[in-house]
Structures are given as structure tokens and as C-alpha cells.
């Protein structure tokens, strides 16, 4: 499975939610709904932190965890 497929699917999944979904990669913060931002950031083998805030955050966290796992990408969902 290509990384491009993962990026499109992650972005489409994020776009279903009203919550803000931000991927933290080292010191960069990327809006997960932005395909371009993901292309420049998402590299297999890295671990990422995902910050989700908003009215449907719980559903968004579960959906995002599932789609990252499906593509074997490691993401740490930050609960705050």
C-alpha cells in the first residue's frame, strides 16, 4: 500500500469531523485535513502525536486511531 493512499484516507477521515485534528511531528504541527501538509510530514516509521479538540473529539480519536493503524503508522492520541 502506498503512502499516498494512507495520506488521502487519513485526510478524508479527518474531514468527516468538526473537531480540530492536528498532527505533531517533532516541532511541526500539521492540520490533518490538509493533504499537502500530510505529504510533507508523514513518513512511515516515525511516531506522531495527534491532538483532537472539538464537539466530536471522542469519535474522531477512534476513527483516526483506526486509520493510522490500518496503514501501520504509529500515532499517539493525546488526551488532555
UniProtKB/TrEMBL annotation:
It holds the Pfam family PTS-HPr. Residues 9-69 form the HPr domain. InterPro entries: HPr-like, HPr-like_sf. This is HPr domain-containing protein. The lineage of its organism: Bacteria, Bacillati, Bacillota, Bacilli, Bacillales.
